[in-house]
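Components:
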Amino acid sequence: MQRLRPAKIAQPCRRNGVCYIAAELEPVSMPADLDPDAALMLRVKQGDTAAFTELVEKYKQPVINLVYRTLHDATEAEDIAQNVFVQVYKSAHRYRITARFSTWLFTIARNLCLNEIRRRSRHPAESIDAPTPGQQDQPPHQFEDRHTFSPPDDLLHGELEQKIEEALNALPENQRTAILLCRQDELSYEEIAEILGCSLAATKSLIHRGRTTLKEKLKPYLRSGTWSP
Amino acid sequence: MSDPNPDRLRETAWRRKLTPAEEAELRAWLAAHPEEQSDWELERTLTDRLFQLPDAPVPSNFTARVLQAVEREQTVPTRARAWSWRYLLPRAAIAGFLLTLGIVAYNQRQQALWASFGTDVAMASEVVATLPPEVVRDFDVIRRLDGSPAPDEELIALFQ
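Structure:
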């Protein structure tokens, strides 16, 4: 079973097992003119809603992507992502330009995801899709969608995507998050390490291990370009 | 060309496509290590596939919802503060008044008790002052008798 690391932003503040958001990161020289998002955040700090809207517009997709692939629930992902931005706004008055804005944002997003995972583990809800003990060996019930027609290529492509998503979901949370954050152009390995709350070497190791697992699982597909396990 | 560093190239390839210079570096390294060729192909394909993963759906009104939520967050503390002033202040005032009333009543009761005690002491001292000294001559002896065993009533009756 996967063991979760305690949620952490540079100076974690935990009460009752819940991680609260600290707005300041480790001091790093980061002038506002180098990070336009930090400049926007300074405007948010002064109550500029337009600047906040700009930040939400820019980051809503990457934040929802990360949350969705962590929690595997679209509705939950929307709510958590909304909370991420609300936290950003609420913490704006404490914001200091000590690191890139996106590092701070993704740290908040990850911590809220971890809180949600912890909450779920404390109050597990039964899924209506989960098989009952008697149905364990039977395949899940499939319903034919008669209203849409997809050409075989699309079906294949969808199946491949699904296999990759499944392989990603099966990874430990920190490996998956590290790999997903690699997709963010603006984040360096150092910043990914900051978000994950571990060293640079540990971060690279997480990515390496995660990718090795993915390669093993997806090898048949990755070699041929089609899924033929 | 400097000695190719496969780890550095690999870490770069995890994040983006290699530049022509880096590609040349890699080709040179792979020429010396052909056994790594297939693993590198896997790495590249995996990176491509990961970058091609579709975005999660974002509702069209997401930004509006966030702004609404922020607005709600801003009004909640004000409302809470208003609630506390409107509801807590009268209750606190009543509680304070009752507490003061209780303290005053207790003090008055204490004062009355002390006054009564003072009067009793004064009366007793006046009575003692009027008694002749013989009356209290054996006071200490009589007081010590208090702890003695109870008299044997049957024996007294027999004597009588």
